[in-house]
Design a protein that fits this description.
Elements lengths: L5 H4 L1 H14 L2 H21 L2 H12 L4 E4 L16 E5 L4 E5 L18 E10 L2 E10 L1
Parallel strand pairs: 1-4, 2-4
Antiparallel strand pairs: 2-3, 4-5
C-alpha cells in the first residue's frame, strides 16, 4: 500500500507506482492519483510543518480526497506568481482568515474540487498588514 509520505520516505516505491500506472494508461484514475498524492499530499509533505505532515495519516486512513487550489482566473500561465488570494493572521482569534478579494482572484482548475474534503490552497500570507508572499494552507 502506498502512503502519502512515501514521496519523502520511500521514493523508489512512490515512483514505481507512477511507472506502473503509466504502463496501463493513466486516464481519469491517473489524474486523480497524481492530484491526491503529488499535488495535495506532496505539498503538505514538502511545505507543511510536523503537525500537518502527521495529519496525513488520519486523512489517508479516513479515505478523504484532497485538492490543490493554485490557479487564479487572472493568472493564466503565471499561476503561483500572481496570487491575489490572501490568508491573513488574525491575532485576536489566533487563526488565519482566507480572503478572495475579487472574481479575478477566484481559484479555478481545481482537480477533485467538487468531491474533495480537504485542500491545499496557495495564498499570500499577510501578518500585521505585511505581505509575506505565497504560502500553502491546509483546509478542512
Amino acid at each position: 500500500l502506498l502512503s502519502f509520505t512515501d514521496m519523502r520516505d520511500a521514493p523508489e516505491k512512490f515512483f514505481l507506482a507512477h511507472r506502473l500506472l503509466a504502463t496501463v494508461g493513466l486516464g481519469g484514475f491517473g489524474v486523480r492519483f497524481t492530484v491526491q498524492f503529488n499535488l495535495f499530499a506532496g505539498s503538505i509533505v514538502g511545505l507543511g510543518g510536523p503537525e500537518q505532515v502527521a495529519s496525513l495519516r488520519d486523512i489517508q486512513a479516513a479515505g478523504q480526497l484532497g485538492c490543490f487550489l493554485l490557479t487564479e482566473a487572472q493568472a493564466g500561465v503565471l499561476s503561483g506568481l500572481i496570487v491575489e488570494t490572501t490568508c491573513e493572521w488574525d491575532a485576536g482569534t489566533q487563526e488565519f482568515v482566507l480572503h478572495t478579494p475579487s472574481d479575478k482572484a477566484a481559484k479555478n482548475w481545481i482537480s477533485q474540487g467538487y468531491t474533495a474534503e480537504r485542500g491545499v490552497v496557495i495564498a499570500d500570507l499577510v501578518i500585521g498588514g505585511e505581505s509575506h508572499g505565497p504560502h500553502a494552507f491546509l483546509l478542512s
